Structures are given as structure tokens and as C-alpha cells.
Amino acid sequence: MNENTVLKVMLKIRYPFYFCLILASAVVAGCQQEQTGYANAAAKEYDRSHQQTVSAMEKVTKTDDEWRGLLTASEYRILRRAGTELPYINEYYKTRVKGIYQCAACDLPVFDSETKYDSGSGWPAFYAPIEGHIITTLDTSFFMERTEVLCARCDSHLGHVFEDGPDPTGLRYCINSVAMNLEEH
Asked: How far is CA 158 from the centre of its chain?
């Protein structure tokens, strides 16, 4: 059974409750580390320095109707409603193309392919964002505390950051493919 067949079967499930339960299980399994604080001093310092470098860039602000008109249904659900795409079958999970990943809502460069790695989580993972181009906030959805990653220019939801990443930061930015566009080098 290929990935498209699995998705079609899941979308045809007659009981929405079971579909939501399966989706929630996949999300929790891929990004399961609970964030209650920084256990890693290097990760804490790295994140603190990023928060201080968010410059006075011009913010992009639009009404909800304007965002709906600019984004696809999937982009809107993830970027503006903090949704999550399915793991393992998204566009950039296994991509090794060199380039810059940009916010799909406002084109702000948010990650460089040089910091991308295979975390095994099912979503694209990076160990560092582009300096000053993301912000983080506490997310208490799904009965847990996590650190949400937002675009610094338009406040769109990109994904979450966890403390189980590789050196040099110890961080894993678990990002939705739908939330980004890849500008190849």
C-alpha cells in the first residue's frame, strides 16, 4: 500500500472520531517530547539569543479573509490555524535539495538547508533557524506543553521546537512542509 492509498483510506473513514484519534496519535508520536523548560543549557542560551535578535522588521498583517484568499486550504489550516500535516508523506521530509526555506505565507527566509537533518520524526527537521526570522511561544494544545515556532514577520504557525536535536544547538525544529517553500540554490 503506497502513501497516497493510505491517505485516501484515512480520509474515507466514516467515523471522524477515529480519524482524529489516529491523526492525534501520529502528531504525538512524531513530536512527543513534552516541553516544560530547557533541560539543556546550550539550547536555552541559543533560543534566548534568537529571541533577542528578532529585529524591527516590518510585520505583515492581514485580515482572516485576506489570508483565506491568499493561501490554499491546507496552507491556511496549518499556517493560520496551527494545524499539522501528516507525517512521512509531506513534500520536504526527505528533500536533500540545497536552498533556503521560506515562510509560505510571507516569503521570509526561515531555514537554510545546511541546517536540515533526518530526525526520523516524519516532518522536516532543522537544528537552527535563520537568525531573527522566527519567534517561539508556549503551545498547550493536545494536553501537553510544547514550544511553537512562528514566522517573525507574519506570525504564521510553522511547527514546534524540541530539545532532542543534534549539536551545535541541541534543538530540533519540527516544521510542516506546507508552511514553507524551498528556494533552490
From this structure: 4
Given the residues 31, 103, 154, 174, the one annotated as active site: 174
Please give the full DSSP string across 133-168, using - where no structure is assigned.
Answer: SEEEEEE-GGGS-EEEEEETTT--EEEEEES---TT
Q: Are 100 and 109 in contact (CB under 8 A)?
A: yes
Q: What is the pTM of this model?
A: 0.74
Strand partners, 180: 103
Distance CA 47, CA 35 (A): 13
Q: Which of 40, 30, 43, 183 is nearest to 108 (CA)?
A: 183
Is 154 marked active-site? Answer: no
What residues contact 166, with CB distance under 8 A and at least 6 apart? 117, 127, 172
* pLDDT tens digit at each of 185 positions of the chain: 544 454 455 445 444 544 444 555 454 444 444 333 454 555 555 555 545 445 568 999 999 999 999 999 999 999 999 999 999 999 999 999 999 999 999 999 999 999 999 999 999 999 999 999 999 999 999 899 999 999 999 999 999 999 999 999 999 999 999 999 999 98
